[in-house]
What does this fold into?
Amino acid sequence: MSATLGVLLRQLQPDWSISTFERLDNVAEESSDAWNNAGTGHSALCELNYTPQQADGSVDISKAVAVNEAFQISRQFWSYLVEAGLIANPRDFITPVPHMSFVWGEANTEFLRKRYEALSAHPLFEGMEYSEDPAQMAQWMPLVMQNRTAGQKLAVTRSLNGTDVNYGALTRLLFGYLASTPASTLHTKHDVLDVTKGKDGLWHVLVQDLRLNTQRMVKARFVFIGSGGGALSLLQKSGIPESRGVGGFPVSGQFLRCKNPDIIAQHHAKVYGKASVGAPPMSVPHLDTRVINGQRALLFGPYAGFSTRFLKHGSLMDLPKSVNGGNLGAMLAVARDNWPLTKYLIQQVMQSNDERMNALREFVPDAKPEDWELVTAGQRVQIIKKDPKKGGVLQFGTEVVASQDGSIAALLGASPGASTAAPIMLTVLKKCFADKLLEWDAKLKAIVPSYGQTLANNAALSKELREKTTQALKLKD
It folds into this structure.
């Protein structure tokens, strides 16, 4: 998120100075790191949680359409960077990988069929395929179908427009460009301790150099807090009214990573299933082909866990320190109203390796423990906000919290996260630089050709830009 905003601002306003502070040794070692997330280019092609089934049996595709359009905006932004020569080779961070949804049982098959009928009629989901034929499914996902019990009711959808994205590599490419430009500095091993508004109208940012163990004050007209789970504490320290009543609930994740090259070679897709009852959206099970530093990998998960850390490299005191008089009521209300989630997390934390393998065998019937290892992914912090009726609500997704004067903004939340970095940062520009938008309009349309338009309602433009970005990003094998 921070890298995307920095690059956008550098393109729009080359004369502004931009300083970035990163607590770890290098950028992208937390949530953006390739092993800390599934790497899915979230476009709702396969993620069933974006298409809930209604009480009357119909499938609501409105969120899927919004998520897909957001990803198309990110594709346009990345294509611009490639065409402008700011990124040399798109295959360094993005690879075409089919996206599939896979279900079993009569009710789930009926749901997937209705989902397919609703989505495939929309221009953003053009080319989606559906099958209940075991022979066809065996061609699309041989590892999933190998030695599967005969007679099961199965269904799958496939889209060849899917991608795998190495967000760690992308972040490093963005910061590599940004740090090379005039009036830009990148400071690693620097911890931001406090953010306060000074009497001079500027933000006073207290920064500690962790190498030299020294502190200094940095003054800025605008501050963006894009530090993953660590954003909440800095947002609270800012003291802006918009931060009051906001809390966070951390959820950690684990994956099984395949160690057997022969098994990895048998699968080339991101296959998403349905989440367990009570599971958060980020816990939708999926068998994922990854391409990391040019090497194929295979992951299954996630298995949810719990830690009071807000960052993988954070402190066990992150959650306790985030609780205050303003958000305590909302957090207690969420704890009261979300027992299924609490029960689910307890069950996940208490899982044995045999239970994890049984979950994997629903996707890979022949899975053997010796071929897989457990790895810990990144932390995600779900947003908790006050609610006049319920007292508090737990929100899934991403949200920008900005001050009324637009001088500071923070990014909170989780999935779809990095996939929608470009449109979310356009939201930051609208919230925080409204007086500059007219001046920036032509450049924004050069960076994101659909800027100011809606792809969902424009089939011709949607197809044109999908083809354009497919070519620019080399997404055709």
In short: The first helix runs from residue 2 to 12.
